[in-house]
Amino acid sequence: xxxxxxxxAGGGGGGGGYSSIYRGATALAVVAGGGGGGGGRNTAxxxxxxxxxxxxxxxxxxxxxGGTGTTVTGGSFGTPSAGGGAxxxxxxxxxxxTSLTGGLGANGSGTVTTDGGAANGGIAxxxxxxSxxxxxxxAGGGGGxxxxGGGGGGGxxxxxxxxxxGGGGGxSYTDPxxxxxxxxxxxxxxxxxxxxxxxxxxGxAGGGGNxxxxxxxxxxxxxxxxxITFSAYPNTVIQQTALLSQPQVAKYSIMMDTDTDVFxxxxxxxxVDNSIGAAWQLKYRSMTNTTTLCKTPAMTTWxxxxxxxxxxxxxxxxxxxxxxxxxTTNCARFYYMNVTIDSSQAFGYPDDVSRGPTITDLTLxxxxxxxxxLMHGRTFVGGLQMPDDTPYYAH
Length: 395
Fold this sequence. Notes:
The protein has no helices and 12 strands.
């Protein structure tokens, strides 16, 4: 958004755009922009008119152009239900404001022509100010956009006798169920004070543009602004209640030491589930003997964790031992296994143990160290003899 383009005569300032908050297609708040100021002639006393600011439920009309005996009125203000009319009395008049759109400022011309030649309207359809097409004529300011936009200001009425008039301010809106729009307007033209005057962040938001002085241009109206602020609740409130349901997530872990490096093949998880919607999950990691045996160099810390994810009970899963770099070691001595049973989304009565979910055992199946393998495949782990040919370490 910029001031109107000026030739010998003054150009009109652009109207300010509106700011808005929507929920889908429903408008919750629309805050109007101010009208642009009219351009001034290059002769003393033939100044432009100031733009009217965007208002509360109604905007404010732009002021009439300066000059002896002139009757070029400013653009009218937007209302809650209609756009403001165009400024009248000029040789070339602007256009009326419409829904969400400010009217165009009249081009300064000795013939009836199009408007808004400065193409300088604010964001969201602020009306463009007029540009100078005939050097002895000044242009009108654009109307501010809003719920309904203000009308555009008119151009010079007779050559060398007046400036252009200011554009009207748009109207603002809030959803009826929300806080109403503040409407603290005062004064006229560029001294308007729209919105909440007590808000230090408001600045010039929604203000009307200044009139073009002799040999000057009208300045642009300011865009409307919506400020959303937050403040702490004055009194801290703490609420609490008894625990009404027991968290239904159980976690089990176990570390197995097979005395020496062995060659793991499978793991097996058993329990009672009854298809009630519980999630059984397994993670594991391993480490070889801390002195060199099946891996060089020997491992001194746990290897990379394998997250198997969801487990089907009574179905063996492949056990793959990994070192810290994620490389398969094929053998290991130490095994750390972690089981999580999540029944928070299950149905039924959690106190019914026979219904489940209940874990019964977790088994590691491995091939024994050949140096410690007995007849028929038996071996000892922690002083306990393992079964024939199917060495398992079960818990």
